[in-house]
Amino acid sequence: MKPVYWIVTALAALAAALFAASNREHVSVAFWPLPNVLDAPLYLVVLLAMVAGFLIGEFVAWLTAGKARRLARERMRRIAALERELAVTQKTLTPAPQPHPQRPASTNLVRAEERR
Fold first, then answer.
1. What does the mean pLDDT of the chain come to?
2. What's the whole-model pTM score?
3. Is 26 in a helix, a strand, or coil?
4. Which of 31, 34, 72, 110 holds its CA 20 to 30 A away from the CA of 1?
């Protein structure tokens, strides 16, 4: 799995480098309510927009997974409590007598036929 990860990472880095080398022209970026204008290379504007989108998406995913994380924590606490209770119960019980080994099924069939 690691070689696949490194191959995909190398391809993504190569694509980003080719994109940056091909789009070096400067562009003016203005955000409407703000009076400032930013002059930056096109590749930088696009890559920063992609990083910002990724981070915003990850933040939203983290927020929506909060309920699942809370439920998992509660279940882990409940499992731990039940395991502790089971351990205490097992220590307090006396060992149960061992059951007698059962006869083979074929013996039971023969005796059932003898009873008829």
1. 87
2. 0.57
3. strand
4. 72
Find tokens 């080398």 and name the residue. 21
Please check whether residue 40 is in contact with residue 23, taking contact to mean a CB–CB distance below 8 angstroms: no
Separation in Å, CA 53 to CA 11, 26, 39, 105: 21, 22, 20, 68
- The domain locations on the chain are 2-71
Task: Name which of 44, 20, 45 is nearest 30 in CA terms.
Answer: 45
Residue 88, amino acid: V
Give the whole-angstrom CA distance, residue 76 versus residue 90: 21
Summarize pLDDT for 22-51 with one digit per residue, the tens.
Answer: 988 999 999 888 899 999 999 999 989 999
Q: Which among 19, 63, 71 has a CA at the least distance from the CA of 45?
A: 19
